[in-house]
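Sequence decides. Consider this:

===
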Amino acid sequence: MKIASIFGSNMVLQRNKRIRLWGWGNPGQVISGSLVTDEGKEKVTRSVGEDGEWSLDFEPKRAQKGVRLSIESDGETILFDQIKIGEVWLAGGQSNMAYPLRYDSEKERVYQSEDFPEIYYYDCPKISFEGEEDLYDYSYAGFWRSTTQEDLDYFSALAYYFAEDLALDLDIAIGIIGCNWDGTLAASWIHPSYLEDNGGKVWLEWYEDMTKNLDMDRYKKDFLSNPENDHEDPVKKGRDKLVFPGLTKEEQDEYMNLQSMDALMEGFAKMIGPYSSQRPGGLYDTMLSKVAPYSIGGVIWYQGESDSRLPDVYDQVLGGLIQCWRDLWEDEIPFLLVQLAPFERWLFADGDNFPIIRKQQEAVAKSMDKVWLASSSDAGMQWDIHPKSKRKIGQRLALLAKEHVYGKEICSDPPELQSLDRVEEGILVSFSNARTLKVVGQDIKGFQAFGSNNQELAVKAELIPPNQVLIRCKYKEDIRLCFARTPYYCVNLYNEWDNPVKPFECNI
């Protein structure tokens, strides 16, 4: 008898939803589970199916602590204690979600705390192909961590700040399932069938083209001998020190002088295949499906940087991913998205296509139920794709959850363009999701205007209380007005909840 690794002592179970346990055994074997809560003891018994799998469903429970679980079969017993029932969220995406708390610029405030709220973190092992778990030591992952000094090193910074804010507000335990991987495509996290009948098909075609002449023996040898594919303990090995702590522009220039972009792309191409984390559907199979259908309250998602190679189809891929996950969980789980932060360049990457990705993210949030978007328009760094302070982004996600998931009477959505009107002095811009707007600093940053010949026009932005901005200009011809359109900017216009205005672009 085996039980899925996500179940263990110290775990958090989702309140007010069905609690499902699952595992493996011999066909016909009888499995009994007992869940001991404040309401008493609930016992469920089932037999292992012909496929060797079993599952047990327990009735929804209210938030509480000190829960115990036992699983019994053929004289064998598995015991788990110190279980909490509270709110559980899955933290998905790529490097900005994976970004460890130990590198966050505000980590000392967290590490020096003497009074942590109840936050628990389960980090899914980064496994990209079946059997990889037998090749490396994954003992650092696959169990529930608490807020000890040692465990905090492994927390996602963004997920920690999100959970901290919720735990303090809701006064219950918060569990985070970290299911993310640096540099991955959205297509890696979705079943390929959800890519076949939409624009996401380009990623299936890309993979087919990259692997059409694959020499499997050579590929396997190259992949397993590449030290970058060793995913053992990241804290002890320190393999992420190049990516997360941050390099100055000068250090990046020096690195790039020693590297060839062509050589890097050639090395990347050699790794694409059935072992790669980049293959469509790969991480859906080897990571996500291993933790579903563990009941969750919702998903926080920070991803899209890698999809900027093909930005025009991102809305279809992201929308397909959300539907795919909801189908997997058989639950219309809420999704809270982070709109990509601005940056100009980081090593060989640039943010030129990020405005397209941001539009696609906004389109998904507006077109799908229970999907909301947090702005990071003030969080970017000119020479780094990874904002070093994740606290305000995590808190904005928590703000969205408080209003839209937990029913708090607050304004959690970032200000967005409501209307444009030509007036004698120029263009009057009105915003929704803002009873009042405020400027941090002297002048409003981020507004640009372009004439019919795409030449940038001189404009000056002025706050008109309570929630409008006047763009002073004398141009009467058609112009394109942009807010935060350039690759790097730092928005300083906020609503009363310290939410920065979302980027926009329109003609008038």
